[in-house]
User: What shape does this take?
Amino acid sequence: MEWSFRSAEELAAALRAGDVTSAELTDEAIARIERDDKVINAICVPDFDRAREAARGADQARARGEDRPLLGIPVTVKESYNIAGLPTTWGMPQHANYLPAEDAVQVSRLKAAGAVVLGKTNVPLGLQDIQSFNEIYGTTNNPWDHDRTPGGSSGGSAAALASGFGALSIGSDLAGSLRTPAHFCGVYAHKPTLGLAATRGMVAPAAPALPTDLDLAVVGPMARTARDLTLLLDVMAGPDPLTLGVAHNVALPPARHERLADFRVLVLDEHPLLATGSAVRAGVHRVADALVGAGARVERHTALLPDLTEATTLYTQLLFSGSVARFPVEAYEQLRTRAAGLSAHDQSLDAARLRAMVFSHRDWMEANNRRELHRHGWRQLFAEFDAVVCPITPTPAFPHDHNPNPLERRIDIDGVEYPYFDQLVLAGLATMPGLPATAIPAGRSPAGLPVGVQLIGPMFEDRTPLRLAELLEQKIGGFQAPTPGGRARPVSRPG
Assistant: This one.
């Protein structure tokens, strides 16, 4: 029996029943990686010897009567997490030989839960791209079409899951870095509420691994089923023990509903600043139709929705003002000169990005205060709705584009070109206010590429979009293994 595409929940049941051992699961995963990853290039730092040792230890623990949430289950970890004895580079050549001394808090939680870490997954340079390629480890290809990206910055993790390289992975999300790769590769991901899961040790080399409150970034789970997301989130959730000095367990409120018919859902298929491609729009409609068919209350407009144009401007300001903190002085001064040369009438997102890169602290405080008003607006919306369904990016996975100047790249949306970074505005809907968002598969494009949508939920009510994801998986289906050969092909009907 082949186990590579089974869910973590199924593997845990099989391990408990004695139908398979962790050593067997781990050997099968390693054999698949060694066979198939030459063309995918998802696993950039293998750790097979220690994985086999951990698997033997898991089998011995089970033989002693132990049971833990992930005991014996093979997983992968995004390269940006510190793992003692393995390089953490964030794709930056100057840090190619950096070896952290201790595990990130989330890696420690994985191991404490019994997981077997197969290795680390590829990322873009500095985690700052919607693709996953760098000079150290090369390019990760989308398992559905090797000429396309799996997304970024957790692209290696999504590609690994879609290829059957482990049952679970952990990634991070600042600008859709969990959700976009899930959408591009046809898997599941969950961006937790800001601050829900400790981030210590998911830090750029060679910075010290300190407990910090990040402004927009979160760490979160990736999987091939919605239930597996919840399983892994329960392992990850909770504050940093160095900060609070307590156990990390955290009690999240239960999902608001257990049946699709009881959900109140707002569906958005467009954004005022960016077109939604036809393939993605069809995915949103597929989910909306399933909700209507199940008896859920579905609305497409509400006066409660915060202003999306202002929200995007705020997100752009908060995101890019933090992106230049470590820039050399000369580069920063060049940005100041360019920003000063902008016309006051230029209100494009490109201009907003450039102005934000040279924000003063006063500017940032003003943007942060306006964010709080938006958060309050979302609270009012979620008094009337349980979730918002909307796109993650405007298109399925796009072809590799390694132009060294990202500002010269373009994204093609149904034949119309837009600035490359404009595609971040949809992911920013949840990121800017810090809301939880679950990425789910929603079928395939006419070219056979995966299409996903996100389910945005109320702050610290992560179990509500996760439960909705689980119910929709039962209704419309979920992950499908990629077509062999690495070429997208037309399909007769959505998957």
